[in-house]
């Protein structure tokens, strides 16, 4: 009885919403996602031998790439994308997935030989070192993200008066996020310039630089964005101010979670390398003793 009542209440809440959750699935986005995944599986599976230094990619690496592309499609081609135009919290969830989940998964899924096939040796040695510099990347990404959330700038971009500005801004933010994560999940050993300790410090620095923007949103007791004031309320239980604060919390949780996982992976990798080196030293010493 109670279970049926709860199901009915949830169903009425969904159906009475101004925007139905069954709307907003963008077919064109998912066609692109499927094409990218199929192309990737063919290149890293059936046709890997056609590439210089090409070797079969592990299932784990393929999983990372597919998960990254699927998350990208979910952020831009699901009802989240539609709700993001009306709910600040949905917008922040969308941005969090695009900037803190998608980039590391995609980089982890790209093998070294594929990365080298994408960029010529000349570009890898002369151009990429400039764009993938860790200090430049962390400053550019966090500056972009902080300026983007200034009320005047955010309202202008999200107003939709100049759609091209909104699209260009989001593309630049995503590219800067890709470059920011490159220093941590670099698929090219020649460009992997940070050791384990520096990578941990780099991630901590990212978290500290992002904190002011999130704190401004989380602890604001009034609406700070004009576009949020003009949006109609989707769910009665989520007031505009609560929606704004919830959005800041979502970004901070996703960001902290992604950074925590990254630090854990770095520490584990560091431990494995140290342990492997200790084992090699012990194996070298053992014959000398005997």
From TrEMBL:
UniProt subcellular location: Cell membrane
Principal location class: membrane
Domain of life: Bacteria
Mode of membrane association: Multi-pass membrane protein
Keywords: Cell membrane, Membrane, Transmembrane, Transmembrane helix
Keyword Transmembrane helix: yes
Transmembrane segments: 30-51, 63-84, 96-115, 127-150, 162-184, 200-220, 249-271
Pfam families: Caa3_CtaG
InterPro entries: Caa3_assmbl_CtaG-rel
Name of protein: Cytochrome c oxidase assembly protein
């Amino acid at each position: 009885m109670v279970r049926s009542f709860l199901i009915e209440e949830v169903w009425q809440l969904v159906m009475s919403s101004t925007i139905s959750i069954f709307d907003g699935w963008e077919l064109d986005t998912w066609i692109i996602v499927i094409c990218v995944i199929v192309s990737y599986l063919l290149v890293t599976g059936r046709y890997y031998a056609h590439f210089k230094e090409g070797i079969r990619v592990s299932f784990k690496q393929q999983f990372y790439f597919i998960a990254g592309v699927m998350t990208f499609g979910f952020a831009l081609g699901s009802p989240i994308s539609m709700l993001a135009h009306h709910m600040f919290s949905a917008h922040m969830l969308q941005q969090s997935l695009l900037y803190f989940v998608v980039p590391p998964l995609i980089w982890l899924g790209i093998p070294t030989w594929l990365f080298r096939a994408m960029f010529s040796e000349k570009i890898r040695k002369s151009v990429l070192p400039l764009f993938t510099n860790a200090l430049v990347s962390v400053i550019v990404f966090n500056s972009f993200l902080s300026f983007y959330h200034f009320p005047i700038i955010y309202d202008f971009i999200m107003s939709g008066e100049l759609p091209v500005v909104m699209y260009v801004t989001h593309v630049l933010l995503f590219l800067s996020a890709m470059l920011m994560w490159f220093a941590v999940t670099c698929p090219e050993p020649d460009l992997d310039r940070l050791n384990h300790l520096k990578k941990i410090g780099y991630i901590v620095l990212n978290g500290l630089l992002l904190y002011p923007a999130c704190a401004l949103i989380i602890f604001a007791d009034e609406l700070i964005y004009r576009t949020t004031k003009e949006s109609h309320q989707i769910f009665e239980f989520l007031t505009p101010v609560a929606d704004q604060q919830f959005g800041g919390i979502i970004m901070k949780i996703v960001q902290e979670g992604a950074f925590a996982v990254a630090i854990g992976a770095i520490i584990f990798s560091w431990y494995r390398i140290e342990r492997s080196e200790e084992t090699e030293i012990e194996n070298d010493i053992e014959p000398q003793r005997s």
